[in-house]
Records
---
Amino acid sequence: MSDLRLALPGFPVNSCKDGSYVLEVAPELVDLAYFRDIHAWSRIQGPAERARALRPVLDLFHADGPLQCCAPSTFTSERSLLEEEWRQAWLDCLKADLATSDLRAVLEDTRRLQTRWPGDQDLFALRVEALAGSRDAQIVKLEVEEWVERWGPPNASLRASLNFWTGSRVTGRRPDGRGSLPRVPRQLPRRLQDLTGRAEQLKEIKRALASGRRTRRRVLILSGLPGVGKTALVLAAVPRFEKRSFPDGTLYADLHGYTAGRAEHADPGDVLDGFLHALGVEPVPVSLNDKISTYRSALAERSVLVVLDNARDTGQLLPLLPGSGTSAAIVTSRNALRGVCDNEEALSMHITPLDDSDAAALLREAVSAELRAKHSSWIDQLIDELVEVCEGLPLALSILAGRIRHRPLSDLRLLVAQVRDHSVRLDALDGFHTDHKGVRVAFYCSYRELSDSSAVLLQQLAVHPGPSISWEAVLALGPAAGIPDPGRAADELIAASLLGRTGERLTLHALIRDYARELAEGLDEDVRTRTEQQICAHALQQVWTFDLALTEGRDLPVPCRPDLRVHAPQTEREAMEHMDQEYPTASAVLGLARKRGDWLTTWLLSMALVTYQWRRHRYAEAARNLVEVLAASQELTNAVERAMTHRMIAGSYLNMNKLDAAAGQLRSAIALTEHLPTPEGRTSLALSLNMLAVVRRKQGLPDEARGHFLRSLAAFQELDDRLGTGNALNGIARLELDREAPEEALNHAQAARDVFATTSDLSSQANVFITLGDIHVSNGDLRQAVDDYSCAVDLYRSLDYWARESRALRLLASAQLRTGKRSEVRAALRRARALEALAREGDATQHIRPGSR
């Protein structure tokens, strides 16, 4: 006891009257007490929680067994009892791992624990179950034979388990003794490579098929573009649950719906012959209907998973689906198989390409650890470039991974150069062997199944510069190629997984676009020309429709094309939201029009984009587009239109605070219309003078600014132009505020507000509320300033005008702070910062040439 006191200082060891001793210590500090509490608690938990709880406390035991600090001859019986507690806890943990399909953990633990408890039959039974779910059946049988040879015949319980999990019987008893079992086929082919990523999809498949027995049909259809990894996903998912959820077997058939080098698809009758033989049904009927009936009867009382890989269409698939009962089917196909999804109580799961992180991980595994250590940053850069080109397509990534493994490091740059070159990219993504044809052939297997109309539409979509296209724009392509029903052709492409859908937009995967471009080289030249014309005409009509919703009184000579269907927004916010989606495509079409030398469309589209570009802080893009087109459009536009172009360039420069450049453009605009007597010429002159006044005010030239404002105001009033009048009055109000004349400023601002109230121009109304707020701040009327700024914020928000709303929010926050409304200040600043981040994203893309993305 003295030794014990020395070993545990701070814990009292007290003697009792009967001569015994009591060690006073909190139970939670005793490993054994803590272990027993957790073990008891884990038994009422689910498998996943049980495994998580047990693993840490199992490690409380010494690797060589309990009570290692005691002499071997002492506590013999206690040592044996503790050893058995430890073993039982391990068995509980391993069973929980099996229930959650964590087979790798079971295999690793049982290998290690067999050295601790050699010949333990309970432990080996669990190992065999894990082996059967993750290894080839022959390998499992060899390990069983080795175990029996070393440890002797198994007991009755282990023998039943071995028979069940190794499939070594035609019929037999279940391990739990519940009746006999028919023949149990396990036909799933062996997985050739590990799966990268897909954790969520694996969980979804398990939830859909292994979520308990139901009497209604369970069919899960996995669809997706060619090479997206549908079969690999199934081969990885099914072994995780097939033996527990489908103890009566797994049937597998490749239906060869899209197999290279094979013209014929698998015949349902032939597939049923194989399935019935595997289920032990003899004799097999002759007619297809009898085969279907017999097949569904054979599955009715069993729980079998039917894996139907690479299905072509509904007609091929329907005879092979199980009937009602506890059996289920999982189907892979490039075809969406809508008929099955609509009528057969099936679940549909669309498989998308890998995200960038998983794609990079797949390629990184192909590089040796030594090379990664020596050239990590360079390797990462090359991998990022390859990932960007492949857009997450597993087939392309796997081919590249194979090439990386077999190429020296010095050749990787050449590989990157090949996949970045559109003309040879698909050559670089050809497979190595005849059984691995590569990306081009994978796409061909889908293309050959298309109707003529869909095949031509796919080629037209390759002519479209992308990156996405609206449904209305797809319909506009049909007449250019004589497609009678382009909507139906597009539906076929979507169903075949060759045309994707992102929100309301349709997209082509980058590699499918490359393949379609190769096909489009054979497109009739007249069809190509008409297609390009339709693409440009539709983009212009759509952007112009959005622009008209954003700007009151905008006038551009855009040709009327009632034959082109476009989306007509109901509000300015809706117009901005749709333009957010349309803008990358419109910029790409602008590049196409410029390449074709269609300068009228280039000018009109550049002008129609300006309002959106300004509201999204894309001033540099707006200026660059218009400067490029200005000289080329001289012969296509009149003086008023050229002046408007100069004015839009000036407005872009003004927003970028390039005041001298803005003033130069405005002088050019004024010179063009200075002496034009027409109302259009006078209006253009007034607009240019008003903007020049704004520029001069910012340059610190108030007298010149006032002269331009007054001159433009007189012209607007003479022309009865309310918007112009309001803008001129608002500009004069700002000048009066600058010279600290708040009463005069207030009079002009209120007059501008009253004029704007008679228009539908919300942006101008918001602008004058900012002026009114500034005036009331200068007067010390902070409450009224808060009201004015709040009105401006609400108006800009309704317009989805981020840059202006963020500025108004900061003014509002400043006024609120001075009135003591601190909570409102925080809310205003949070939103202002979020909007400014969005505006910065717009700035970050302005170095990209329109049409290059």
Note: The mean pLDDT is 87.
---
Amino acid sequence: MKLAVVGAGGHSKVILDLIRLNENNQIIAFLDDRYTSLTFKEAIYRGPIDSANQLLRIHPDIKFIIAIGSNMIRKDIVNRLSIQDECYATLIHPTAWISPSVTIGVGTVVMPQAVINADSYIGKHTIINTAAIIEHDNYISNYVHISPHATLTGAVKVEEGVHIGAGASVIPNIEIGEWSTIGAGATVIKSIPPSSTAVGVPAKVIKLQLIEGV
């Protein structure tokens, strides 16, 4: 698979390692707004994010992966590029365990030792990070980040843009409203409204925030 990596921050380093595990993958481009124009040197293209469509004209079979940890920025970039879903890659680490009945959307990455169990749905451009556990019948929407060692038990619903912090736990049948944040180590025993920050054991909402454009 020919790949263009979008973003050059810390999360991109992990994505690069994941890509390189498969010898059939070929990184042919890095896109980041620190570049001012699309250039080609030593078999690699480098250019601003908006040069994606230019790259597609050169390499129609190229796939893009947005290697940026911020949920909001990933969504903004998808909206900026307005390319077809089939132009995005889905990356899954070989040590992850994923039930055959799971659905995973385009642009999503699943990191080492993650577990996604039966009949769960994972949306587009979502991060299932290292050793996260997604139990049966979960619904995880688009632009979500499930951090390392977080555990979502059965039938949890996580709406768009949610960030579940490292080591957090969510009991069954809970709903986490869109663009909310669950703090690291929190235990969620009640549903969380949209645009909230919840922390603690048990988790309590400490902030409600209206996010413009969401």
Note: The helical segments are 10-20, 52-58, 71-81.
---
Amino acid sequence: MKTSHALIAAGTALVALAGMAHAQEGISALKGHNSHAPIDLSADHAEAQDRADRAIFSGNVVVKQDNLTLRTARMTLAYANNNGLDINRIDASGGVLITSPSETAKGDFAVYDLDKGLITMVGNVRLDRGGSFLSGGRLTLDLNTGRAVMDGGLRGVNQNGGGRVTGRFTVPPKKS
């Protein structure tokens, strides 16, 4: 009996998350994001490691791509050197904040796979939109579809949720 209630609650949370990501105040900026748009970045320190095909940025790192902004303390950028830099992955750590015109996601770590258009955030994750939020241990954002999947992570690792997804959703007032 408890399992079926947990499944219903989890299903309800995912439906609410989907609604949160698409229904409030316009279309989610996550859906259809161009992960091949140019990337602008700034940091206090940069180190190129050409033999390893990566660059490491630290200190007030800000990365902008189209209408998404990523802020973090440290970032490793992996690339292929094909007559220029072909960036394929960004690893961010030290507190990560990702913002779009309509969403904000926070977490301890993030991996942005540019080839697949996926952002995975882990550790004390929170997704906010229009007064509603979900918190959990891991969030996967599919930039192609706008789909967001949150799970609670391991018990004891996500101190705020204890291995569960938690949230609060605003309910708009009924029009008379």
Note: The first helix runs from residue 2 to 22.
---
Amino acid sequence: MIYLILARYLCGFNDTQTLQILAANEAAQKDYGYTLTEFLSSTVKVLWPKYDITSMMQMVKQKVKPGLHNKASVRHIKKDGTIIHVDIESKPLPSWGNNTRIVTALDITLSKILNDLESHEKKVLEMNSTADVSLKEVLTYYVKGIESLFPKMQCTIMQVKNNRIYSWVPSSLPKRYTDKIEGLQIGINAGSCGTAAFLKKTIIVSNISIDPRWDGYKELALSCDLLACWSQPIINSENEVMATFAIYYKETKEAK
């Protein structure tokens, strides 16, 4: 059986019994990051996140039947580790042999993330309107949800008290990093969060290693593999900064 490999509009072929990839179009090569040679020496499992392999094998056995078309929404993984969501459609391709199949895949990552984000925000609003749910619980749920939707992000919410920042919710950031910045004095060059709180404006640091606002803290951040940080102040009705919401990345980022 053949699987066509498509990223966006992905095209390729593979054998259904071995799952060997037999062909891949230029869009697949470009978007997934594999050369044609790499594709042809791989099975379709190379496109499956490791935690999905068992369920994907079960789906192939249950849904892929000789002579029949089938559709599914699944996750794929690119060569660089990026997870995408795709709608796949599988059709028999007799011209390539009785056990071949062509599979097209349409990248629906953006629309899925937007739908999931909308659902997440609705849930946060529901929690916030529930009397027995604390603000800390709401914020924790929000942060963890954002990190789930965007796995390359590490988020934190810092509370601002007496011109210092303190962790408000549990964070996925390294403990030795959060311990060091606990109680940090806000100021003009106090990292992303300290500066955002001081200036009352969004601070975007695309490369911590060269940004002067991180001069006093860059060694700590870089030792924790934190290379970029964007921070947004949260300002109350009295124009006071009550907290900052920050996103950290383990790679440098271009400001947009």
Note: DSSP finds eight helices and eleven strands in the chain.
